[in-house]
Protein 1
Amino acid sequence: MPSPSDTVVIEANGGSLHPGFVDSHCHPFEYGWLKRSVNLLGVANTTGMRLRVLGGIQRVKPGEWVSGMGWDQEIFPGRSMPSRTDIDDISQENPVVLSRVCGHIGLLNSRAIEVLGFENRAGEEYGRDERGVLTGIVRERALEEVYGKIPKSAERSAADLQSVEAEAARLGLTTLHCIVSPGGYREELDALAALGTSGSLSLAYRVYVPPEALGHIESTGTWKRLAGPRLRINGVKIYADGSLGARTAALREPYSDDPSNRGILRYTDQGLVDLVEVIDAKGMQVVVHAIGDRAVEQATDALARVAGANNPRRHRIEHASLLPRDLRSKMARHGIRAAVQPLFITSDSWAIGRLGEERVHDLYPLKSMLADGIVASGSSDSPVESMNPILAMWAAMTRGGADSTEILTFAEALSIYTTNGRSNGFDSAEGLSEGSPANLTLLDSDAGVMHPALFRKAGVLATLVDGVAVHSYGTT
Ligand SMILES: [Zn+2]
């Protein structure tokens, strides 16, 4: 017990103190990389895209990779996919990769196709026009392969992480469930280890590696080394499907706006079961990215085989976006958890087109998930959405003004960003109790009595991790 003289008293002046906010699914390395890449968020046509890419090319030397992220054909005229011919004339000397806002589709220029040796690649992951010529569009694993081949360094990854961490602290986040990239896990894990060893990490990290990294973390001892209270490898992230925006999320029934398409499953049913069993047997947590109902079904079935009735390893489904009642029941029956992204609700205004009037009712059913007993934790999937947990809680409480039975109360919205986030990352459940680590977020208003629509204006006065202020208003 600290003596009274050791106690620092901070007057909250009408603010409110909360357990530290947890972002239970984000890609801080990708976000850091995005912050120094060409930002294509909000570009309304290929002309806008060309101008920003040109700016990016002017900042690097001939031959260096130029990367960008954030385009969305849904806001382009005619909603047509861009093609390499849209950027080839301005980028003859530099390989270019521009990923869509979802991160599941990318556009390569001709120089990149040449450097990568993709000219003769075949399959649905490589877009071709009606004459059979590559358009430069690549999907899913093909895009991951591209990122795997772009030169990286642990120093650069460390700088990327630190820039994101400072922003996350300002937003009131104390813990990040950090997904490391299939294409850059060596450098990213080295960066985490170096920052952790030198005591340079401000926030707590629960790390999820791709299956490709399993051999690496075992043979190098990284798994054992990153096992502390501040920095810990929790488990493995598997992708079962793609995204709704890219129409690569795997659906039980075809897309309403593309009746020949049900999306892409990355594994066979048995293939996913085999992988889940291998990881579970190592004592690790498995988190499966599944967005379409077919993928959620496949993931639930695979996780249920090792979860038993109460899922002691806290295996979880990331996104679980299209979640009809039968799948919610099955997840709940086996104690399978979920990491959800409330900001998807307000962003995916096009979802009704993809899914139609009926199915869209089962999209992001946050209230029903909690009511069914699924431990759902809040997250951003940054850089897909802003890391701001206040905005995300606001989205969960308002659903963008839509009249919905799935609207959460403040207590529920807060719980997905605190209690459930801690639980889904194997952190003790206590929040504001004596003896628990002082991971705290101080807001400038009493959020519990605010109108939900105003909550998005709440500000973060201070963020404490293990009792240390990693952000205080006006100083960081
Ligand atoms: Zn993600």
Protein 2
Amino acid sequence: MRKRSIATNDPHIQALARIVGERAILYRKEDLMAYDCDGFTVHRHLPKAVVFPTSTEQVAAVVRYCHEHDLPFLARGAGTGLSGGAIPLNGEVVISLTRMKRLLHVDLENRRAVVEPGFVNLKLTNSVAHRGYYYAPDPSSQYCCTIGGNVAENAGGAHCLKYGVTTNHILGLEVVLPNGEVIEIGGNGVPDPPGYDLLGLLTGSEGTLGIVTKITVRLLKNPEAKQTVLAYFDEVEDASQTVSDIISAGIVPAALEMMDQTAIEAVEAAAFPVGHPKDIAALLLIEVDGISAGIDEQIDDILAICRRHHVREVKVAQSEEERARWWANRKTGFGAMGAISPDYLVQDGVIPRSRLPEVLREIANISRKYGLRIANIFHAGDGNLHPLVLFDASKPGETERALAAGSECLKACAAVGGSITGEHGVGIEKKEEMRFIFTDEEILAQTAIRDVFNPKNLLNAGKLFPTPGRCVETKMPSTVK
Ligand SMILES: Cc1cc2nc3c(=O)[nH]c(=O)nc-3n(C[C@H](O)[C@H](O)[C@H](O)COP(=O)(O)OP(=O)(O)OC[C@H]3O[C@@H](n4cnc5c(N)ncnc54)[C@H](O)[C@@H]3O)c2cc1C
């Protein structure tokens, strides 16, 4: 094999290469371009370098070096984040965790597993499925996103309605702090550990408090039975009311997903069409699971509620193959937008379920106001909306219009007592929108916590909180914009 050598006099690149090895660092512009953004593609910035450590010791050594030399740095998993969390805004050293991808330990007796942060989400379920277990959080990107990235974003997924999001499935973390020290949090199964809930704090902190290098997760036993329903509606109001009535009837489906007409047009034009009628206003994909006894009754109740709300057609999956096709159609929904639009922006608002019809009406108004189509694919059961703003970045001004339309959608969610993010995080994308739901004092309380962990603010600076200098002051190092 040809031996590579570092072709730069930059002392920082040379020092980092000594830590991770010459074959585990990128520093040439043409290589760095692949790391200039994540799934939020409207901002692009080149990193200083990308390093690929293979152990906690290497991560800690890289972090210590950056800390001592005031180099901004950030962690990156698969780069599927939709809010710009892994974008190197300040020319960061990107610490890619993709080579730390081992399944370290499976303990079925205690229903847990230990993984490295670069382990891909779906691989975990695939690794234990033959023994009757699975890992519940199932973001639609689960075939490629990493569990480290899921922890940082507190990722959700279609089946999180019943089983809870990532934070409900994390039992322990090993974390490299921004000064290079390594700490362990939780992991020993104590239900109410003494001290602050650092596990809760770190999960969802969007890579601003530390770099996760090991994760202990909860595994669940496969449900005994599962049934899936597909329901087509001529009116969005009827579909929305069906969602509300299912939940208020005391049924907690494993998943309760909605797609509107524009979304259906996209998924039917993309890789996994299933023959949804294109003239319906909305569809619901509903799954119930649990012990076999009682499942049929729940399905009967769901069918009755659908009929009460004038469902045009409703069917129950007749085979595992049919169910899998329906889910593939739904789970590839974001990517399917590429079939009907050159670019799209995914939003991630949360609303009380009861306000669904009025917020969807408001989103339709926003779509008209900005002259941009907006598709809706979302976790209706927990009120987590994903308006997808379709645009063409090659047309002057359209990206800005799309961003403004997306922001207005979030304002509409906040206005009914909802939130600006349900699972994708704040990142760069929604940091100004934090003001829709938090006062200056509330934001300051959060940045104060960040400053305890990350006092030099070298780790993932410029994310999560509004730009300083207006009302809220946050510390920014001189190297950071
Ligand atoms: C098609 C598609 C569908 C999606 N569907 C869903 C969905 O259903 N639900 C959902 O919640 N999300 C979804 N997402 C968003 C995304 O997949 C998740 O946010 C995921 O958790 C990101 O994981 P990642 O490995 O790609 O992380 P990255 O994008 O690489 O990083 C995300 C953030 O985590 C930080 N980070 C990464 N690794 C670590 C680590 N080891 N330690 C500390 N910080 C770290 C980064 O600095 C960054 O801030 C979707 C994305 C796409 C493209």
